[in-house]
Amino acid sequence: IFLKQKQTKMIGDLFGSIFIIYSVPVALFWFVLSKSPKLVIATTASSFMWLLSAFVSGIIWIAVTPLKEDFWFLLLVSVPIQELFRYLWWRLLHKAENGLSTLTPDGNVVITREKMSLASGVGFGLMYGVILSCNMLDIMSGPGMIPSPGCGGYNYFFISSLVICANVLSHIVWGIIAARGWEERQHGQGLIQKTDWKIFFVLLAHYGAAFSTLDTSEETCAASVVPVFAIFICSAVIAWVVLKGGLKKKEQSN
Hints:
Radius of gyration: 20 Å
């Protein structure tokens, strides 16, 4: 009976972690993006772009043998590579606007650049979540639980699920902010422009979220959880402001 209860608890923790990580992005995909085949394709394709960025980062990490055991080096390299592939994906979408008519109405769904950036962010976030959670979920399927240092009463997998969830959501809003920054940069002049703060913010926020996961303090797990959620909330507010500003400009131009 004890073993059955323990197994039931592990299964409950497993599905709980899955719901924590994927509930919001899956809801966005189902209620907003799945109604348009174009948005579904954009979400799927952008997820593979993140996978390519992870593949390139892995090659560099393996190639630099002396720093192979230093995870800070992997984060230092992978963050700009992910942002580079985010930019390349945006360029690809921008090139396809005329040739593939990506912004023409898709049935009853009106396709906008804002929806495309949302689809791209969801794709990046979902693939990030899948890659980072697969190993964790595999370990959870085995016997026993690993207690979380500094957070009595909570296991390691619950805390990891919260961190992954915050980063998945951050990827979604970073896609919106970065896309808006690149759009505005197209219409400006000069190497450095006032609107570039959006692009730099995404890069710095990504670095902040990535390096906060390196904290291994046994005194409290808040050192990892609080920063990533603070970064997400700040990024979400900026994304909302950016979207409102973009919509106002469209209304004024019309």
